[in-house]
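[step 3/7] fold_predict: job queued, chain A
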Amino acid sequence: MLYLILINSNYNFFKHKMKNHILTILLVIISLNINAQEKRNFKIHTIAFYNVENLFDTINDVNKNDEASPMMEIKFNRSEIYKKKVDNMASVIADIGSDLTGKLPSIVGLCEVENKNVIEDLLKNKHLLNKDYEIVHYDSPDERGIDVGLIYNKKVFKLKSTKSHELIIYDNKTSKRNYTRDQLVVSGLLDNELIHLIVNHWPSRSGGEERSRAGRIAAAELNKMIIDSLQNEYENAKIITMGDFNDDPHDDSMKKVLNAKKDIKDVKANGIYNPMESILSDQGIGSNAYRDVWQLFDQILVTEPLLNKKYDSYQFYKAGVFNKSYLINKSGRYKGYPFRSFSWGSFTGGYSDHLPSYIYLIKEIH
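[step 4/7] structure written:
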């Protein structure tokens, strides 16, 4: 069991390492500017999202266009490269949020996975083996053969229901259907508290941002419909929508369709808060880079019932981009960019062209 102790201070974070190894409880001391002098104990969970950049296996699937994947384009040592790619992804997942919590994430949304098999290989890796993770995955009709998925710690999150929502869109010039990723909805009990999660990978900016914008607007409309449906079915629904949205927090899909707010004070009942907007606009931190400009496509948004700050149930505490130095390219043409796995048909030894995003949920323990 992990607890947080909150005390009155000025948002400075630090960790106290227990020297008495007999104790099995890890205490993490953090500071919050709250109106309380007494110490308060909190439970904490990390919820994360990671675009794992073309996590394809080495087997040719005749039903998919996987021949064009970076993994299948590699001519030599493909199996060893696949093992290294899996190991890299698993090591990052195991690390997300650990500086504060001392444990692995409780829930992780994934995108750019080829199939359920590659997620299973992730969980068999030494970094995630025997960590009590289970998988939610559906095959989607994406033309590149990639899917979204979710892993969760079955000891803290009890699965209730899952559903895959198909996004049907058409190219506005050719009128042909654009086969893209479904939106995955997972509902379950986080320590006996109902939480709903939506995992997204919206249409890319291939062909240019303007030409491809309609696809992401349609994806946002589907996402909003799912959120509205959950809110109609469940009173005070705690919803977390996460993904690679291929849009920044200030784009129309986020601001106009989802009506996501940058500031908590502006979020009305059943509204949506996007903590990633201030991370990009105020801190200049992104999750992916293009032409020397940081973008923050990998976002996690929450609905208003996660914002009451009473902490008698799970509440949003903090969001961030997991940007440790080992995930950043140290040299060459893409110095300072995320240290990606594949470049010009070869394996770089890196991780992903996207950095993970995460949030913490906390609840007071009496």
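[step 5/7] annotate
Residues 46-308+322-360 form a domain with the Deoxyribonuclease I; Chain A fold (CATH 3.60.10.10).
Helices lie at 70-73, 78-95, 98-101, 116-124, 209-233, 252-257, 276-281.
exit 0
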